[in-house]
Amino acid sequence: MSPQTDQENSSQINNVGNNGRSKTSHQGSVRADGSSIEDSHSSGSSSSNAGVKYVNLDEEDQMEIQGYRRSIIWTAVTWFFIVITVGILRMVYHWFPEWFLNCTHTKCSLEVADKVLLVEICQEKYRKIHIRTILRQTALQALTSCYQEELSANNRKHTEDYVLEEFNKSSEVLSLPIPNPDGTFHEVDRISMFTCKKLRYVWNEKSKVFFKLKSLGPGIPTSSLHCPDAQQGLAGLSDMQQQKRRAVYGRNTIHVPVRSILSLLLLEVLNPFYIFQVVSIMIWIVIWYYFYAAAIAVMSITGIVITITQTRKNQRKLRNTVRGNDIITVCRGKGVYDSIATEELVPGDVIVIPTAGCVMHCDAVLLFGTCIVNESMLTGESVPVTKTPLPMRNDIFYNSREHARHTLFSGTKVVQTRFYDDEKVMAVVTSTGFLTAKGSLVSSIMYPPPADFKFERDSYKFIGFLAFLASIGFTYSLVEKIKNGDTGLQVIMHTFDLITVCVPPALPAAMAAGIILAQRRLELRNIFCISPRAINVSGSINCVCFDKTGTLTEDGLDLFGVVPVAKIKNVPRVLPPITKPSTLPQATSALLEHTESEDPKMELPYLLLTGMATCHSLTIIDGTLNGDPLDLKMFESTDWNLIEPSSEDTNKYDNLCPTVVTWTPEETETYSKVEVGIVRQFPFSSALQRMAVLCKEIGKDQMHFFCKGSPEMIQSLSMPETIPENYHELLASYTKQGFRVIAFAHRLVESQSIHKLQKVQREDLEHELTFLGLVVLENRLKPDTADVLCELSSAAVRTIMVTGDNLLTAISVARDCEMVGSKDEIVIVNFDETTLSDNKPCLTYTLAEKVSRQIFDDKVVPPLRSNVSEEVVLDVDAGTHLGRYHFAITGKGWSIIQEHYSDLIPQIVVKGTIFARMSPDQKQQLVQELQKMGYFVGMCGDGANDCGALKAAHAGIALTDSEASVASPFTSKEPSISCVPELIRQGRCALVTSFGIFSYMAIYALIQFFSVMILFEVGTNLSDFQFLYVDFFIICSLSAVFGQTQPYPGKLFKRPPMTSLLSPPPVGSLIIQAAFILLIQLTSLFVTQQQDWFVPYMNITGGELGTELGEYACSENYAVVGVSFSQYIFLALAYSKGKPYREMFLKNYWFTGALAVWTGFSLYLLINPNEYFQELVELEMPPLYFRFVIIGFSILQVILCLLIEAFLVDRGLISMMNSSWWLKMRPRKEMYLEVEDKLSGSHWPLVSNYGGEPPSEEGGLNQFSAFRAKS
């Protein structure tokens, strides 16, 4: 049985990857350049270091890979030691699975391996391992496994015979199709694969590597995805071919496992913290601390139950959000259509999109027809998007991002479909399961990268320090007991108790409480979070990137006017601006006196009106016109009507146009009713900066092609002789004032059949266009934009604009919203491709003109030019903004710098404030470059074109109506950037709360450690109920309400809180506080021992230790415990910081109440408790006067701890960190500070004065003056 391709076996197969190609075999096919197709897979697993193999080489998910084979001998030896250690060794292996793999397996080649070890290096810091078992199957076994999911239980024992019988019936070859990089498939008899992070990796026998199964389409010509015969039902995969591909790709499901309660329980119980708790509880039981052990056990069990419940809730919520199944019609070839479950779809299936729409369960490329799609689940953008067929080109390679307007993504909802006559709207499946865009987002939620946050890293180090301190105390105490001959079980167990004291049992719950409370506060302000760990990180944000349109400016656009162009005596002239586009026909009629044209409908102003009425992607949904706000505003200004004919009405419109726009002139006008059908749309692309339509006036043979987009792009597509002489000056006069300008162009097209029109490419039409004019829209700033940016600036939070709009428009908006100060200079970074240096375009640096927009009586005052001298020297005086400068750059300039001047990226990133004409990928690149420079980056956008940047940022905030979107960690239902300072405010509050709780829990552990060590020296310890009162009542209650304090409501402080627990203030605070705590406890004990009535505990017990007797009441215990009560209570107050990040503690009524209750009850216990409480807590009451002496020590402790925090820490250590000598000794490590320091003393860049023309993307500017900048 020789392996053959799918194409060889059936003439009905979808030609995806096979169109125009010869059949391939499992031995590998040959490319045009002579290289083997299979060999190209080796690049995914090549070695960049000698002896190290990789999968996904040079991709974001690159991983090292090593093969392992089981060793029977080493497995037996390992399990022997597991048995004799009563499973303890296996538990250790659970924490360190790589150790278990190395102990039971030996390294080997991947070809013979049973398992693979995958090592993922995250953020160049964190090492994450994955151990996966390799599944090796014959084609028959793989297909049998696939069938077992579909056959009934009675037939499962006969499935192999069943599979063979089915293949014999269909004359299919019993083999498996493995995809090649060029879209073809080669057949194999057996398959080896493993799954990692829900993605399959398949063995390539030719290159001896594993490669990741990828979507069908990326990197191959768009023509290869087309199926010309699909409308006739002559394309698609047969049932057998679909089964074979499903055996390779798996079922089309995004499976989010919901673990059983038992498995979650085991995972939680095996957590090192809970193992420590179990051991601690056993020790406490042995030393007769029954009540305390029971209380901690209840607390731990409660924590486990809450964690398991929340985990299952989150897993179920995610599963219910992403899972779904439906029935879809697929084309089987030979005119056969079949209805199947969407779970059975595979890449290459040709599907029919229902007329009434559907929810997509796969990624598919649209081949025929038009779809209106709601993508809010993926992007957060609720505006419906129009999807059009993929162009059929051999020279254009498919990319899901670049061709997003031709791709139906999984999880999105097709609202409507439109096509001609009864023809079907069809698409070809490119991705299924976790290969889809939705699957990728879900995978990123299920397998998040490690949080790169210093606070979290330092917290583990600090816990390690406490454990080290505990081990010192344990060793010292154990040695002393042995020296004294105290070797009883109770003594030894009490010594072990020292270790349990140093790791607070309530620490995890206390740390989580602050984050949970912050999340709730955010929700009350309509800010929703799907990644709670990002809340603390948001408190460190010192740089925020903003999209412009819909973020800084209003969603809605006001049409300021149109600037038509007319040919007067065959010379293109700009006509006066017209505020009402609907009056353009009258302007056209007036022109007829000066032109030779007899048809007013062919005059340029009239064509501009027609273009405004047709060149859009608007659609009617539930009787309401929907679409992009810009398109809506433009269309409404024309006074035309939009009609979407039903199937009964299509005869009226020649069965050609799914959308028709009509215009009925007034009776006084010379025009008759106009009906124009939109034949085909070429949707807007941010990469192309334009959209286009092909339309036809009903009853006329001539067809029109309209194109609209950025003025720069439309100019480049238009014939030069149609561009007015004063075009650049005109464009600059509007863009400098912040107006959004759209240009229109037109050309006539010969009438063709509908099928030919569907195949025509936009590149064949987008040339030799006639320039029609400009549409000027006013995109007003949101009312609070300037105030919010001012608040961020005053808080030393850097703000950056990253937009797809025109550079000069962006510059104007940046000045209007005060992102750039009135006295600041803007340096436009441009390039000159005509002047090459080392085959690289030369960069130029030009001062932008200062322009202010002033509107009076609906008229725009001409732009005000600033008088900038040619010799420009910018300087910065201390405390002023004079001379500060900002870089402004376009996306094209950014690309050139990345490609040719990568060494300048740090300077551009650090000084860049305005990034215009940026594509979605470039926005993400900018965020990542800012992070490399050491910034904590926030990103705020509408979620549409900003998804990549929102996900990449430390804290991405999408302005959307939905409560949660996978597009961003945070979503704000309020369409205002006021959510940014609010998020930072809440994040700072949460971060300071986390610092406070951690410091409090650490000092609480030290207080208890000192108390126990001191009492051990005198032969006693804390009693069961003393431990219970402190840990369960005082500590748990105070830590639970500690985070209830609200953020400080005033302006954001100019400095974010610290992110390191190991910096001088927190470390110094703990050291100083611990020293005074120990001093007060020792002083209290010493003073007690000097009293006349004092009798040492060991004298009372006849030399026996209290740890052996279980009796702890004594004067020493009272003295130490008495002062420690105040230490436990009031250090919580000391660490409950207020202004500038949190409100005063008195406004936290729960916290204040807890302080009052436990202070009062502690005083009651220390002064005059009743007999019951005295016996319960085991207190030996001293004379009355001495009780007040202990209270005096307590008051002294309170005063000292508060003064230490207020003066020595907050004013002393923090001021020290900001001092020049400290910064010289310990300079900050952020790279952006180093770049700023270098720029402050440099003569870079050379700058030229701005002469009033917009920066040309082709022409260069002379550099003539030195530009010295200090910042």
Automatic annotation (TrEMBL):
Any GO CC annotation of this UniProt entry: late endosome membrane
SMART domains: Cation_ATPase_N (SM00831)
EC main group: translocase
GO-annotated molecular function: ATP binding; ATP hydrolysis activity; ATPase-coupled monoatomic cation transmembrane transporter activity; metal ion binding; P-type transmembrane transporter activity; polyamine transmembrane transporter activity
Leader peptide range in chain numbering: none
Enzyme Commission (EC) number: 7.2.2.-
Domain of life per record: Eukaryota
Record bears the keyword Translocase: yes
Subcellular location: Late endosome membrane; Membrane
Transmembrane domains' residue ranges: 72-93, 261-283, 289-309, 462-479, 491-518, 991-1015, 1027-1045, 1066-1087, 1148-1167, 1187-1209
Catalytic activity entry: ATP + H2O = ADP + phosphate + H(+)
SUPFAM superfamilies: Calcium ATPase, transduction domain A (SSF81653), Calcium ATPase, transmembrane domain M (SSF81665), HAD-like (SSF56784), Metal cation-transporting ATPase, ATP-binding domain N (SSF81660)
InterPro entries, per the entry: ATPase_P-typ_cation-transptr_N (IPR004014), ATPase_P-typ_cyto_dom_N (IPR023299), ATPase_P-typ_P_site (IPR018303), ATPase_P-typ_TM_dom_sf (IPR023298), ATPase_P-typ_transduc_dom_A_sf (IPR008250), ATPase_P-type_domA (IPR059000), HAD-like_sf (IPR036412), HAD_sf (IPR023214)
Family assignment from sequence similarity: Belongs to the cation transport ATPase (P-type) (TC 3.A.3) family. Type V subfamily.
Protein name from the UniProt record: Cation-transporting ATPase
Organism of derivation: Daphnia galeata
